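Kindly inspect both lines:
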Amino acid sequence: MAESMGISAAYLSSVKTGAKPLTEKVVVGAIDFFSAQEGVDTSEIRGAADKTIQTLDMTDMEEDDRELVAAFARRASIASNEFKAD
């Protein structure tokens, strides 16, 4: 995925854990990558990216704290989707 986005795997991993900020290049690269995949709906990527960019800057956090925030956000997203389904 990273290669197709024109970035290194290490950089993409850093973005995922919050060590590096989410940039427009990464957002556009993700949209392009997933748009090329059959059966993948990319309609919510831009909105999710905008919320991420506006909500929390984790660049000054310790690595363990960033990973904890990312894990919580993933879990909150799952819980939110389960709540919406009910």
Helices lie at 2-5, 9-17, 24-35, 45-55, 63-85. The mean pLDDT is 82. The chain has one domain: 2-85. Residues 2-85 form one domain.
